[in-house]
Amino acid sequence: PGPKLQKAFEKQCNCHVKFVPFEDGVTMFNRLRLEGKSPKADVIIGLDNNLLSAAKKSDLFASTQIDISRLRLPIKWESQTFIPYDYGQYAFIYDKTKLKTPPTSLKKLIENEKLSVIYQDPRTSTVGRGMLAWMNAVYPENQVAAAWKQLAKHTVTVGKGWSESYGAFLINEKKDNYVAATFSEGHIVQIELAAKLKAAKQPKLAEQFLAFLLSPEAQKTIALHNIMLPVTCFQTGKNFKSTTT
Does the domain made of 2-89+189-226 have the CATH classification 3.40.630.30? Predict the structure, then answer.
């Protein structure tokens, strides 16, 4: 949704916005940490709740005056520094024409070595870190390492980021055959976040942009083009619905 958000915000601010894309949020955050107190950006978009602890410890981000009372999330949100702009729930996607009896839990997916699985690397991907959190939530500490080893036996590839993993999944596939497997343990929630850098050269515009992300126009653009749920009361339509958390 970057180009559409850029065009809409530039009309409001009478300014020029430059987006610098990264493969994934973890890679982007690592770049910011390397830049330290001399970042090239004013705002970062693409952190998430699984990176929140590390982002807070980095001390790179500034608090804002954004009105977060409008947020409608599955959990209570209190941070004025990290501003949610969309959310969703992790799920494994499968081809319903090829897999007639999908796994009904994460444990059953791990144990079924006949299934071929693609997921993302937690060292470089926010989705990968979400998978790591999901595994840690489902398995006791003394069992999680064995579960990863079992999953590795039927892992096709571990992608560095979304584009690589999604591209591998799409090979010889038809998009209308895809559905999400519903797991009995529930589904981990991902909340994507934006934040203003303490060393931002344009702090007022940075805060204005964060407020813009919560506007009806931006929320609609993000939901429809990022395929995520809005964080405000914007109505997404029948194609968007939550799974069990």
Answer: no
